[in-house]
Amino acid sequence: MQTIGIAGLSKNAGKTTLVNNYLQRIMPASAAVSTLGIYRKTPCVQSVLKKPALSLPTGCYFTSIPDYINPWRGLVTIIDNPKIQTAMGALYIYQANAPLSVYLAGPATSHELNQLSRIFELIGVDYFILDSSLDRKSVLNIEHIDEMILVVGATYSPHLDEILLHTEYWVQLSRLPIFPPPINMDFSKPTIFYSTDNPEHYFTQPFLGNELEIFHRLIRNHADCLFLPSSLIESSLHLILPLWKKWNGTIILKSAFNIQISPAQFLILQESGLRLYLVNPILLREIVINSYSSRHSIDCQIMRQKFRHRFPDMIITDITELPTGEIPCYPIHSL
Amino acid sequence: MLPDSFTLKAIGGDILLDHLEISTSYGRNCLSETDCLTWTHDQCTQHYQRIKVMLDFFQHQPQRYATLKAWLSGIENIDPILINLKTPDYSLMLEEIFILKKHLYLTRKILHDIQDTPIAPFFSADPLQTVWSLLDSENLNTPSFGFSTLYYPELETAREAYREIMRRQTLLTQELRHQISRENGLSVVPERLSLSNQTQSLLIDHLLESGNFYILEKNYYNTILQIQTGNLFLSLEKEKAEIISHIKSLEESILADLTLTIQSYHQQLKSNTQAIGKLDFDLARIHYAIQYSCIIPEITDTHIEIKQGRLIFFQQQLEQKKMRYLPLDIDTTDTINIITGMNMGGKSIVLKTIGFLVFHLQLALPVPALEARLPLFKTLFYSGSENKDAFSGLSTFGAEVVRFNEAPDDTGSRLYLLDEFASSTNPVEGAAINTGILNYFAHDTYTWCFLCTHLDLKQTHYPWAFWQMAGLSRHQSAFWQQVRCISLSKRLFILHELMDYRLLRLNTHQPPPRQALAVAEALGFDPLIMKEIKAQIPYSEVDDPQHIKKNDQECQGCHISDTENPQSAKPER
After folding, report:
1. Per-residue pLDDT tens digits for B418-444
2. Nearest chain A CA: its distance from B21 CA (Å)
3. Do residue A320 and residue B244 have CB atoms under 8 angstroms apart?
4. Taking CA A15 as the corner, what is the angle to CA A12 and CA A17, rounded to the nearest 5 degrees?
């Protein structure tokens, strides 16, 4: 099963529109769609327009709650209930018996999402499309995301440069290397771990607030790498950067979400020669741009041009150019 | 009824209940159902006979156990649905029918898996073939459920009409796009167009004039145009709404029919859930027995005999700290038992172990021991120093008295575990209170009592059994003074290693050992104060550590197996 995470740089970036488009192009019976949390039936903040519902082809698997499915009861089959509770009731896995236009609901935690992913794998789904976000409980923490598609749009900012800078940050994060051996492996060189949940680790003091002490200990013990399950934040960076060159080791983080620093700080970090590794990498290969926003719009031609120039190794797709229906004009790489 | 929460906590019963791997809510309900717990000798025997058969089977078939547990883990609570079914004119919802079908699917799976096995007679669920055939109309043999077109062939016609409208709408949109593309010279026509007011105003006007687009939104920079779908598209939408409404009415009829049929099997569904609960509870018992090397106890009326009985969660705590644990050996037919011994000698643990093992019989759980012969007690009561936390505003003694008054006064066999009762009041009255209680209990042949005390209780005309914890076998004041600088945890560890935790039976009444000073010294009491204390007590009034050895030699009757070589009971440090 290929899991495709679709994440937006901001709300109303155009994720649902993109998922709608994808679903037209793949064998419906082999696809499953889910999301994170519940879509509330209120007008979105930035627009008075109703958020687009998901257009599901016949045979497609999806997750939702009975309240949302009520108008379509006769057109769906319940496949399973994964014992996941949402704020509005139990979550069910449905299969569409006819083309439907529905609102999705999904689990709220990454653990539940992994559980859902395993059920879809058992059902025999080939593509699991996840309409999600870049937050903590997001695609970044899911075990097996095979590919992530970032949707960036004018809803993030009216200034194109700002959108470009933030996208650049995520592209840089996606280029961070994966930490090669599994964390539990025996290291040949001394390694200092910080963890609150594993007493076996050598070092159990919190990193935040103890940065200097930890770094002195790293240097004293000739330690090779530091595993941080917590976040790397800006104030920590100010403290550790002066000591960085003395230590010259490697920091391992769980996921890109744990890097809680600004794009500018990240640039400084990279220039300092710091080696960062991720356990859960971001497999970002495609950026979908959306020049449309109800409040402000950016010229789509300029946006396309700038993105393609800035990220030559990424696949850049313009959502406004994506046709709906059955006209396959712009092939999307992942499919 | 389970013991009160205080007793349960004191004897480790709450941890035991947490450790039972019960998968379903029906299994958990068994803890409050009298027919699953044991209140009579016969019930208990029947439960244990069943568990023995199941234990023998699953020990050799672990895979079968894992499969059954997997099925059970998927079983949901259908009680709310069963309640709804009883409501007149209630029509089940799609999700409710799915849950019922899944429940039945898993029940049938369990039935299928245990048929032709020795445990088949213990699971009396009904496969409900009629209901299953109705719910699985397409013979898919899966728990999934949808409105099959086999219920109403008309449903298929309605669905096909719906799909046809969707196809026509798609084609219409495509045609419209091609048309717009041809008319306006656009290469691609998306559903929504975002055009710049400054540079593309002419195109905006042109597209609006063509009548194919309407303004969805306009702001200072851009105009958003949405494709105009036309009247035909709208009429299709109307037709679609009518078909959906028709599908809905068909679906309501199917739900009503299904509800009517399922309602007549309400009782069978209910008894199935009870059978599932019992099986789940039995599997939890078996898992516990295998995990903690338990045995099936023999139920007696007038005898307590435990060999290598373990308070398993305390044992685990000690083992985590790499400290040794000595299982309990006891053999007595006396209903009144008095246990004395030095502080930190293990008296309370003996009481808790007895309570813990006896509690297993109430749950019909195999017992963590090498051999166990135990009576079945209807009431289990523990009173200990932790009482005070439960009764704020009362002194330690007050809390003990209040708690003792609250002890269930059931008829039938009772076990009282009294840990240093009335020890906080003056020794003369304390001893009188304890003696009075023991004499009162001695009247009743069904009441057993184990009392730990430091008080010197004089035997009355009632038969009492006296026990003593072996305690410190050697004690060196000089040693503890030399090692004053070591940490408390280290001191505790050394003290634990030096302590002999065996429970020894005394032939005759002996005053409780006086070794509190030895313990105080071991725990680092100030030497100057110790000197002052020793000046107060003549040496003859403080027990010589060798005194215990003498007692040991004098003991007869119930002894642990390694009395001859006490050190052999201690594992290597």
Report:
1. 988 888 888 888 888 888 888 888 888
2. 18
3. no
4. 100
